[in-house]
Amino acid sequence: MKEREEKSIIKERFHYSTDQVIEKPFNWQQMWRLFSYMKPYSKNLLPLAVITVLLATAVRLIAPIIIGVYTLDHAIGNKDMNLLMILVGVIGGLYTLSYVANIFRIRWMNMLGQNIIFDLRKHLFTHVQSLSHRFFDQRSAGSILVRIMNDINSLQELFTNGVINLLMDFLLLIGIIVILFTLSPELTIAIMIILPIMFFISTNLRKKIRRSWQMVRLKQSKLNSHLNESIQGIRVTQAFTQEKENIEFFDGVNTENYDSWRDATRKNAMFRPIVEMTNAVGSAILIWYGATLIANGSITIGVFVSFAFYLGMFWEPISRLGQVYNQLLMGMASSERIFEFLDEKPIVSETEDAIHLDEMKGHIEFKDVEFSYDETRTALNKISLTINAGQTVALVGHTGSGKTTIANLISRFYDATNGEVKIDGNPIKDLAISSLRSQISVVLQDTFIFSGTIMENIRFGSPDASDEEVIRAAKAVGAHEFISRLSNGYETEVEERGNVLSVGERQLLSFARALLADPKILILDEATASIDTETEVKIQRALKELLKGRTAIMIAHRLSTIREADKIIVLDHGNIMEEGSHHQLMDQKGIYYELVKAQYRMLDVG
Ligand SMILES: Nc1ncnc2c1ncn2[C@@H]1O[C@H](COP(=O)(O)OP(=O)(O)OP(=O)(O)O)[C@@H](O)[C@H]1O
Fold first, then answer.
1. 4, 352, 428, 494: which sits with the fewest CB atoms below 10 Å from its CB?
2. Ligand 1 neighbour 405 (Cβ under 6 A)
3. Where is it predominantly found (predicted)?
4. What crossing angle do the helices spanning 271-295 and 185-192 adopt, rounded to 10°?
5. 380-387 and 364-371 as β-strands: parallel, antiparallel, unpaired?
6. CA distance readout (Å), 83 to 77, 78, 88, 302
7. Mean per-residue pLDDT for 492-510?
8. Which of 421-430, 445-454, 564-573 has the lowest mean pLDDT?
9. Is residue 155 in some structural domain?
């Protein structure tokens, strides 16, 4: 009992919520949208591939008649050796043509498939880059990765083989039916009896197959999300010795993934045998009824042989169409998920006539701004504040009081629910996002370091900066010293997230990165929290110089760092409680005074 309880706790630990199975019927509009990715190739690769398909299909359709009716009935039946030789030559020539056409078909189709996948992945990545913070708040990184990698990969087979097979098989099927009817309508009708049975079985299976492929994607996404989180959080896991529990949870997710695959492939595997069974029934009918027709003189042996050839070919496109249909179903499930992302509009968007502020001054105004991340809680409550250009303003308050939210609204990572944010007198919604953000630098406590060299990391926001400028920025924030001590100095490679650097060193890097971008507005969100006091003093000194001519918003819990700010704004539960300089607020003996006193008391105790 206890064991079961423990297990359920582990099961309850991770939640990956947003990737539900999207249940929609087969959707032609979506199909059309997917195929529209072929459009850029409609003048080169696509027509070339279609021509080769038409050639190969035509050869396959003509060959059985030549072999059956012409060779058997005419040449061999009439012992016409000349005709026989000509026919052998024609058959040889046709097969050579088909062979060459197939080589090119495969080459061109692969190129077409790869190009479409390349375009689609680029489109999706570009789109995801433009999406607002809210989108990423609601999804795990792993589930986004699945869509950009796995879902797009699953379309590869469809575009490389599926689409063209669809055309080829469709043409073959129609061609064969027309030829069979021309040769012997009654024998054709006899064989066709099986078609509806087959159709009925396959349509029933279709729905189940489609749903199970969707389930596979869902489970894969969950597995990916969990993997991503486990690896990123491995240090915490090990510190709390939760490896065993994590492995157990992973086993659960991995098993779910395995089971979903097994279920989908099992249903998938039923398709082919059904087609082959009906093929066998068709052959039996042909032999029995065909023999009767030969006996009563309705058809010749040549027609019978041609029929046998066509029958062999007839089931091939049907069976392959079944496979293509499965590919289509998988493709539909994936494309539904891809299009769901592509249809996601950036919540923060700009108007067509957005203003480009080339020389921002840095005057910020909040007027009755209300904001909530979700419907349940208010993060900011009718906030009004003014920050003059060039001022340094500190935001203080308890955890969760709304400091970062104010910074988020200034960078326009979110839009205010009510009220207005203005920069240099312009409503922020009227500004071009790139012109706004390129003049704002944000330094967060959790600094993101990209894989690459230290030099590249500092240069991240200002790709045109010279090495000298990078070094100057690093010196200005006191990062030069530790960088010089690294094995390769500025050329030292750091891995993703900069795990080889200390938190403080990463912080210094992000300072240099922010300053190099030469912003008009600098937002420092708990930026000096991980830096030792000595370095902080250095940075404070450097900052004084660097903040000249810029508007700065400093968010700090360590109140000693913000004493000299022009203005201190005290927040509580999304409301502004106090506003003024350090001395004014100390005189007021309000919340700020209490916070400062509390910190001094803590220091005294320490
Ligand atoms: N992405 C988010 N989605 C939903 N709620 C959020 C999100 N970010 C913050 N919140 C909530 O909004 C409120 C204000 O958060 P905010 O990050 O602005 O606080 P803060 O004052 O910066 O806190 P801290 O000092 O801990 O950084 C909090 O209640 C927080 O839980």
1. 352
2. yes
3. membrane
4. 150
5. antiparallel
6. 11, 10, 9, 15
7. 78
8. 445-454
9. yes
Q: Are 335 and 34 in contact (CB under 8 A)?
A: yes
Interface predicted TM-score (ipTM): 0.94
Across 380-401, b (16+ Cβ under 10 Å) vs e yields bbebebebebbbbbbbbbeeeb
pTM of the model: 0.73
Instruction: Considering only residues 5 and 596, tell me which one the structure prediction assigns the higher pLDDT.
Output: 596
Indicate which residue's Cα is closest to atom 5 of ligand 1.
373
Clarify whether residues 319 and 219 are in a common domain: yes
Tell me the CA distances in angstroms from 411 to 55, 416, 522, 545, one per residue in order.
59, 11, 10, 23
399 Cβ below 6 A of ligand 1: yes
Residues 338 and 390 in one domain: no
* Mean pLDDT value of segment 59-73: 86
What phi, psi does 382 have (nearest 5°)? 45, 60
Name the residue with the closest Cα to ligand 1, atom 6. Answer: 373
In whole angstroms, what is the distance from residue 122 CA to residue 106 CA? Answer: 24
How confident is the model over 215-233, as pLDDT tens digits? Answer: 888 888 888 888 888 888 8
What is the extent of the structural domain holding 399? Answer: 355-439+556-606
First to last CA, the chain: 47
Q: Tell me if 408 CB under 6 Å of ligand 1.
A: no
Indicate which residue's Cα is closest to atom 29 of ligand 1. 400
**Number of structural domains, the chain?**
2
Q: Which residue puts its alpha carbon closest to atom 3 of ligand 1?
A: 373
Closest atom of ligand 1 to 408 CA is 18
